[in-house]
């Protein structure tokens, strides 16, 4: 049973880490009437968070094939929760529920068939997808290269404009009177924070530092991911497109203003140095084969970051008196944040004393709401 951390309105809360979880939690606690101070080691406008580098897909079906069943169940919650939060932030246009498309070159169609079998094996009747032929693919994404004969359309899935979301969350935090400290690395303790300016005490400290929380979680690791951001007015994909390949699964996600994020490698390394030539070539050539019209796209940015992961690749929430930690969202931060932040907030609001491990082990909901 976790220690009691319930707050009444007007308590002081420090949130360490202004990535995805930290911003969500700070925003919600300010709305509950608490005095919240948010700290990040980096710049608040262009944070060094994995959340900034991420592609922003909310893809429970794609992730199920490489994860535990509970990731899918938490992802279903995300599909319902994100539109509500974005309405509250007055930013509903950042949410795109247009599904995602999976394709493979003719020589790799076995990979697509294996993915479909894995999905059926993991989800049974809940695995909702449509099999498309070349005409169906062309109807959904006319700019897709002509050589693809088969694809899968995962209609339930969504993506969001994650960088704009992070900016909107920060704006809302400031508007509600949150104290925001960028370039301020902190160490967390129950009811206390060590800042460069000295120790400060709070009624509650919440640690959302991602891979920066290693001093508190020695078993936490970072998993390197690399992306490219490109711009072109020649391609008009409206949803994430994933390319199956024997060695990797790559995706391209449309962003506002003709931008696309191509990602992502997954390398068991904590190296944050720039993208390797090999990764850059693989990402660009995958992009080019999805649509030759990408040939003239301009490379705007190369992204490298570390996904925070525990050994089981599942999120962990721990509650001590005066300190809550939430971490390990790995490659599914946007997919899992509603469940993880929701649990953390329920604990703080005195409505969820159940350990998070029990939430992960809970049986899946029975009904299906596409
Ligand atoms: C290439 C890539 C692509 C991804 N794509 C997706 C996707 O499409 N969909 C999806 O669901 N997930 C995706 N993810 C995963 C997602 O980004 C992470 O799971 C999520 O960002 C984790 O959120 P977090 O708040 O725990 O950590 P972060 O977002 O990393 O935030 C942690 C914050 O803590 C700060 N911090 C660290 N140390 C300190 C300190 N000592 N003091 C103060 N602040 C500190 C950091 O500066 C950072 O801002 C992707 C990740 C990567 C790397």
List keywords for this structure.
370 residues, FAD/NAD(P)-binding domain, 20 strands, alpha+beta, binds flavin-adenine dinucleotide, D-Amino Acid Oxidase, Chain A, domain 2, 10 helices
Q: Taking strands numbered 1, 2, ... along the chain, how are they ordered across the largest sheet?
A: 6-7-5-15-16-17-14-18
The helix content is 25-40%
The total of beta strands comes to 20
Named CATH topology of the largest domain = FAD/NAD(P)-binding domain
Give the distinct bound molecules: flavin-adenine dinucleotide
CATH class of the largest domain, please? Alpha Beta
In percent terms, what proportion of residues is strand?
A: 25-35%
CATH H-level homologous superfamily name of the largest domain: FAD/NAD(P)-binding domain
Largest sheet: 8 strands, mixed
How far apart, in Å, are the first and last alpha carbons? 35 Å
Identify low-pLDDT runs.
365-370
Which CATH architecture of the largest domain is right?
A: 3-Layer(bba) Sandwich
The average pLDDT score comes to 93
Write the element-wise H/E pattern from the N-terminal end onward: EHEHEHHEEHEHEEHEEEEEEEEEHEEEHH
* Alpha carbon gyration radius: 21 Å
Outline:
globular
What's the total helix number?
A: 10
- How many separate domains? 2
